Structures are given as structure tokens and as C-alpha cells.
């Protein structure tokens, strides 16, 4: 019985790959000499996608993509790695807060995703990565994760990204060691997670 469920998922992923292949070139958010990929003027002077990110995602993931000390993944300099594999790209689109975002315009949500991947992801985003499109967002919204463990799903994808794309082993961590999480946790009297 479970074998029959593979075909719809494979068909959906194949359709998603076709949408990605037709995507326009990415907006380059990278400022000269800035390794993070954030514009020099960010967050003082934001476009709509950047503002949407701050309003919709920044409260948890941090306005510059640094979630520490929250037990959420850092995006800054890391989220782009997910774009090296189709299942990583698909994972990002199917996250509940993305797929069920209050932003109802698919083009606007695609722009937010592109800022997240190309702006916050910076150099972690593989060269030649196609940006998200409104059509891809529309498909992703119909397939939001509902009953899976996001932590286990992320861990499985991260392992494949490390093995197949050369992502750093630190991607396994929610936030890399050496970020501001350690001093904040120590100051709060909480031992850092190992």
C-alpha cells in the first residue's frame, strides 16, 4: 500500500524541478566584500521582501538571520546550502510558516524566500541557484508539512547536503558554535547545549 504513495510525491517533485528550471536569474543581494550576503543598507533601508522577512520571520530567526540563542536554525550564511539538492529546496518551501504564510501573494512570498536564500544565505547559496518563482510557491503551499517531525526531516536533509554538496558539518547544529548563543546562555545561568 505504501508504495502507491511514492508516485504522487515523485510526480510533484518532478513538476517542481520543471518550475525551477524555468526560473529567472536571482536578485543579487550581496554587497561587495560582505560575506553575509546582506545589503550594506540592511535593515535601515529595506525593500518589500526584506520587510516581509523582518515582519514574518525575523522575530524568531533574527532580523539578520541569527536565531541564537533560540533553539531555531540560524539562516545567516547557512540556509543557502539547502538549495543544492531538490529535496532541500522542497523542504524550505514546505515549512509550515512558509507554506501557510499570511502573505497570500505567491510572487511576494517567492521574493521573501529569495531574500532569505540569496540575501541571508549569502555565500552558502550555490552558484547558479535558480530563485523561487510564484508558480513554485503555489505548488509548495499545497504540500505544507503537517505531521512530520521538522527536526528529524531537517536532520536527514542536512546529512545529504553535507555528503553530496560539501556543506560544513556545523550545519547539523541549529546555530554554529561561536555565535552569540553561548554568552547569552551563560549569562542567563543556563548551560549551553552540547
Structure report:
The chain is built from nine helices and no strands. It starts with a helix and ends in a 7-residue tail after the last helix. Helix 6 packs across helix 7. With 194 residues, it is mainly alpha-helical. It has a domain at 53-183: Cytochrome c-like domain (Cytochrome Bc1 Complex, Chain D, domain 2, Orthogonal Bundle), CATH 1.10.760.10. The longest helix is centred in the N-terminal third of the chain and has 19 residues, at 3-21.
Give me the number of helical elements.
9
User: Which stretches of 5+ consecutive residues score pLDDT under 50?
Assistant: 16-20, 180-194
CATH-level-4 superfamily name of one domain: Cytochrome c-like domain
Largest sheet: none
> Which secondary-structure class do the elements indicate?
mainly alpha
Q: Report Rg.
A: 17 Å
Give the integer mean of the pLDDT values: 78
Helix and strand run? HHHHHHHHH
CATH architecture of one domain: Orthogonal Bundle
CATH topology call of one domain: Cytochrome Bc1 Complex, Chain D, domain 2
Report the portion of residues in β strands. under 5%
Q: Roughly how much helix do the residues carry, as a percent range?
A: 40-55%
Shape: globular
End-to-end Cα distance, whole Å, is 41 Å
Number of DSSP E strands: 0
Amino acid at each position: 500500500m505504501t508504495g502507491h504513495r511514492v508516485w504522487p510525491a515523485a510526480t510533484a517533485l518532478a513538476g517542481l524541478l520543471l518550475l525551477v528550471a524555468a526560473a529567472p536569474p536571482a536578485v543579487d543581494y550581496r554587497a561587495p566584500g560582505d560575506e553575509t550576503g546582506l545589503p550594506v543598507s540592511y535593515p535601515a533601508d529595506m525593500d518589500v521582501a526584506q520587510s516581509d522577512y523582518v515582519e514574518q520571520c525575523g522575530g524568531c530567526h533574527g532580523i539578520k538571520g541569527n536565531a541564537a540563542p533560540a533553539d531555531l536554525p540560524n539562516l545567516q550564511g547557512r540556509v543557502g546550502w539547502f538549495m543544492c539538492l531538490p529535496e532541500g529546496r522542497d523542504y524550505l518551501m514546505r515549512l509550515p510558516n512558509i507554506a501557510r504564510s499570511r502573505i497570500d501573494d505567491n510572487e511576494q512570498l517567492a521574493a521573501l524566500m529569495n531574500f532569505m536564500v540569496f540575501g541571508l544565505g549569502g555565500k552558502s547559496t550555490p552558484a547558479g541557484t535558480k530563485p523561487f518563482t510564484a508558480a513554485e510557491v503555489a505548488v509548495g503551499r499545497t504540500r505544507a508539512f503537517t505531521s512530520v517531525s521538522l527536526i528529524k526531516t531537517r536532520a536527514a536533509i542536512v546529512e545529504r547536503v553535507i555528503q553530496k554538496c560539501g556543506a560544513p558539518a556545523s550545519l547539523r547544529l541549529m546555530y554554529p558554535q561561536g555565535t552569540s548563543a553561548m554568552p547569552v546562555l551563560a549569562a542567563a545561568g543556563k548551560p549551553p547545549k552540547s
